[in-house]
Amino acid sequence: DDDDDIPQLSSHTLAALQEFYLEQQQREGMKTSEGFNQYSIGSIEEDWQLSQFWYSDETASCLANEAVVAAGKGGRIACVSAPSVYQKLKEQDGKDFSVCILEYDRRFSVYGEEFIFYDYNHPLNLPENLLPHSFDIVIADPPYLSEECLQKTAETIKYLTKGKILLCTGAIMEEQAAKHLGVKICKFIPKHSRNLANEFRCYVNYASGLD
């Protein structure tokens, strides 16, 4: 019988798989149900293969509020590889500022024209309408703790910002952050929704509310 060669899932595996699909359907159902906030942190799940770790709600709120103050009235804010800060900023819809998200993960294209595909390996491969020095503040969280990643992301940051930079990265990157962006470490310690093995810190090049 040809069917003998078809691998069979054990009843335990099958049950686990069905449970997974059911949970997935329930999550998707939540996302399409009335009252679901498409900008809430976790509405797009972390992809660890892309080195994605979302900030805690409190940290994202703190960084978003800092960005609004730093940008000033009518200010423009760019979030480079920092989607949870972007989401928190969008929750403040109605305040006098504009924001865009530069992100490699195309799932964030659900945010429409504010989404800009971004690959740090090509730091200046940006749309023509993204003019140099057109953002009052740039918030960036390079995906990898390497000098190469920071150096390339720094090119993007320096192209976009009028001057103010808020960088979030590992504490071990302090020397490289100063070298490539002229930023100094803040007292504020950012937290993630899942604990990271590496100590994480914020860095700025202006007088911020994070000290």
UniProtKB/TrEMBL annotation:
The keyword Methyltransferase applies. The keyword Cell wall biogenesis/degradation does not apply. Keywords: Cytoplasm, Methyltransferase, Transferase. Its main location: cytoplasm. PROSITE patterns: N6_MTASE. It is found in: Cytoplasm. GO terms for cellular component: cytoplasm. GO terms for biological process: methylation. One of its GO terms (molecular function) is protein-lysine N-methyltransferase activity. It comes from the Eukaryota. It catalyses: L-lysyl-[protein] + 3 S-adenosyl-L-methionine = N(6),N(6),N(6)-trimethyl-L-lysyl-[protein] + 3 S-adenosyl-L-homocysteine + 3 H(+). HAMAP family: Methyltr_EFM5. PANTHER family: EEF1A LYSINE METHYLTRANSFERASE 1. This is EFMT1 methyltransferase.
